[in-house]
Each structure stands twice: as structure tokens, then as C-alpha cells.
Amino acid sequence: MLEIHNYHMTQKTYRMYIGSIAFALGVIISLSVSSGNWYLPGIAIVTGSLVIWGLKRRVQGVMNDERDAHIAGKAAKTATSAYILTSTIVGITLIALGTTNPVTYAIGSTMVYGSCALMALQVICFSFYGRRQAQD
């Protein structure tokens, strides 16, 4: 008869499993790509993600608290702002220098449009999560 155990693990055990899964994914992906198999890495990533999701549900204790979430939010905002500012400045510089070289102009345009897209995505995510939190 099949017996289901309600197994809980500690955060240390969880991190050990995550490291093992990451190592296995690295080996599988590198061997698959080097042998020309492009389907196996996708299957391995999806399978690894599902296993990690299942393991995360079994972790006993607090995975993160409000302070971690606040720090992560600040770090993400700082990194995004720094990237947008840097890529915009470099992109505009490349566009200005690109009057003689069309490749430089194309790279600069891509950087500037990428910055605009990232800013738009940031606004969309901010409004989505703002509405979602208001509903809770």
C-alpha cells in the first residue's frame, strides 16, 4: 500500500538540494548543447524547476521575511535604475557617433529602445502589484 509521508526539511537541506540540482542542470545543459541536442536543456530546466518548487513546499520554517522582501525590492530598483541610466547614456553616445558607422547607430538605438522597454515594463509591474496589494 502506498504511504504518503509529510516530510519537512530544514533550510540547510533545501540549499543542499538546490546546489545539487543546479550542478546537475549545468552538466546536462552543457553536454546537451555541445552534442547538438537543443530539446533536452528545455526539458531539464522545466523538470528542475518543478522539483525545486516541490522541495520548497516542504521547507520547514520561514524562507524569507518582510525585511528580505524590502531589501530585494530596493536592490532590484537600484539595479534597474543603474542599468537604464547607463544604457541610455551609452546608447545616446553611440547614436551620436553612429553618423559615420551604421552598426554603431544600430547598437545605440537598440540600447535606447531597450531602456524604454524596461522602463515601460517597470511601470506596468508597479501598477499591477500596486493594484494586487490594494485588493489584499
Would you summarize the structure shown here?
The protein has 136 residues and is an all-alpha fold.
Any overview of this molecule?
The chain is mainly α and 136 residues long. It has four helices and no strands. The radius of gyration is 22 Å and the shape is flat. The protein starts with 10 loop residues before the first helix and ends with a helix. The relative contact order is 0.07.
Features:
mainly alpha, 4 helices, flat, 136 residues
Topology (SSEs and partners):
Elements: H1 11-34, H2 40-56, H3 66-97, H4 102-135
Helix pairs in contact: 1-2, 3-4
Secondary structure class reads mainly alpha
* β-strand amount: under 5%
Low-confidence runs (pLDDT<50, min 5 residues)?
Answer: none
The SSE order reads HHHH
The largest sheet is: none
Output mean pLDDT: 85
How many DSSP-defined strands?
0
